[in-house]
Amino acid sequence: MAVPPSLRIRGLVKRFGSHVAVDGVELELVPGEFFCLLGPSGCGKSTLLRMIAGFEAPSEGIVEVGGADITALPPHRRPVNMMFQAYALFPHMSVAANIAYGLKGMPKARAVERVAELLRLVRLEGFGDRRPDTLSGGQRQRVALARAIAREPGLLLLDEPLGALDRGLREETQGELRTLQRRLGTSFVVVTHDPEEAMMLADRIGVMERGRLVQVGPPAALYRRPASRYVAGLLGDVNLIPGRLGPAGAVGTRAVVTAHGTVTAQADGVLAEGAQVVVAVRPESLVLGERGLAAVVEDATFLGDRIRRVLRLPDGTALRASGPPGGGPERGAAIRAGFAPADAVILPA
Ligand SMILES: Nc1ncnc2c1ncn2[C@@H]1O[C@H](COP(=O)(O)OP(=O)(O)OP(=O)(O)O)[C@@H](O)[C@H]1O
Ligand SMILES: [Mg+2]
Description:
By secondary structure, the protein is of the alpha+beta class. The protein has helices at residues 45-53, 95-101, 108-121, 137-149, 167-184, 195-201, 219-224, 229-235, and strands at 7-16, 19-28, 34-38, 60-65, 68-69, 80-83, 155-159, 187-192, 204-209, 212-217, 239-248, 253-258, 261-266, 276-281, 287-289, 293-302, 307-312, 318-323, 334-338, 344-348.
């Protein structure tokens, strides 16, 4: 296979009447990259994917694959394939015929060979003659996936490919999707609104908010260094402690004066002294011990792999803390909750 083409999106806008569904998206994918688009319902994920695939014409902007401008090309002439949010298998056709549908135009003998190869790839050997309604949800999803990759597109767009699956099957299929992508070496753009799924799958995640791509980066960077409250909250549970920005401290950190005392945290953005900010701390970064904010353990819940605590500060603010199971302060204990400056980030209020 030739070097898979990379994707480049410039100034992409989609308006539906006065509603701006996609708003000035810029994005560049490395060949072979697994990219996840993460965002709440209605933020424009599917619309962005449909413009890349050619099912929706942009109001403005350019889509390039492998350096060529494909903005004006119809879907079937693009080196791109898309698996839709509500993927549809043909119920009256066998699994093999469903997959072969993705190979229309290929000589019969080659298509038969290719279908067998694809069935092996998605681990459905022996299922070729079955009808979709005799398969499990996960197996059906894999058939849809096989059909989408049948032509070895240089770029594969998957709109909530695991949305229909329950938790166990979903986790298993996530692993398979990742393995499959590595084996194919194709760039994948996968839409999800599940942050854990995005973190599990992606090389990089792009977070969308009301049509805009607001932050792009590797999962750990987005989780640990979100650029806004929105991104912090979308990637997982987070405590937000309000305060005013103090003077600059050690390199990259600032002091924040809160109602509970002064704390130190990372500051990435440019913010003026005295600005209203929040200090974002993940529950697992709160260290319960001798130092930090005075609090009372209001609730402690055993969750198997961890204990989740609700801490109450004197002014009534609640913080959530997550720690290892076994040991630690019980309900009612007066403690202090601290955190390492490197584990907390200062964000605009
Ligand atoms: N054909 C259309 N005509 C008018 N408005 C549209 C059209 N398609 C999408 N929209 C609007 O554009 C916005 C973005 O829709 P889109 O389907 O891209 O969201 P999404 O992020 O994929 O959401 P979900 O997670 O629910 O699938 C929504 O407000 C939607 O109502
Ligand atoms: Mg959608």
